[in-house]
Request: fold
Amino acid sequence: MFFFNPPKIYTSYIKCTASSIYLFLHYCHPEIRYYGNIYLLTLYIIFVFFFTDISVNYSYYLSIFKSTISVFRKDIKSEIRNRYVINSLLMFVIITIAIIRFSIGDEKVEDSVLSGLFWIVIFFSAISGLARVFIKEEETGTSLALKLSADPSGVFLGKLLFNFILTFSLNLVIFFLFVLITDIRILNFPAFFLTVILGNFGIVSASTIIAAIIAKANSKGTLYPVLAFPVLLPLLLTLISSTKLASEGADTMALMSDYQILISYTVVITTVSLLLFKHIWED
Reply:
């Protein structure tokens, strides 16, 4: 059908038009460029969903969705029953923030320094907790059952969703404790909240695939931070910069360059992870 399989001339025309608009936006005002990029992204989504034959792979996508939900529910029930990761992360967060409070004392610390400390706490909390999602499958011997019953993409997305919910809930606790103890001021809270959401996606996407890589290694505890730090370093630097600007009350449009880096980082890491996870999982 033409609706799902357009001639190549129409496909080429759409690509050329999009490229021309993108080049034009490059020389426009930043605000116009921002809304123009959103428009291009919308066109791309429409093109993918309406000009590609997704009806053939509908059952495949549905099976991935079911596998994702099943893996997510399994991990949620397992964590509620055991509470191993939640308890260890809460203790780590409380101890770390208490150490920061005792180190600061009664001195007044700049918000830019506190922004860096905030993401350092989140980074080490993620390292200590997110690695368990695949390690526990290997330790309990349930990885073989997952390989036989679920699609690899569904397994990865289910673990990714579980890690995101866990990390976001943990970050809320970290934020309230951090504000209560350090008195950090956030003058542009919507921009700060958006930074936290994008930062969560980036940290979780990178940490999940790294956890899958080190799950079968002998030295799991030492290998995870060694692999995670260089991968997450560009993300952490961007997050600290955008959090600093948000705490100083910078306009949201001034943070668009940081947001573009965060979104691009998450999309690239997640896409590469989905492409590589099957080979890592079935090795």
Summary: Confidence is low (pLDDT under 50) at residues 1-10. The CA atoms of residues 179 and 194 lie 17 Å apart. The first helix runs from residue 8 to 25. Residues 59-281 form one domain.
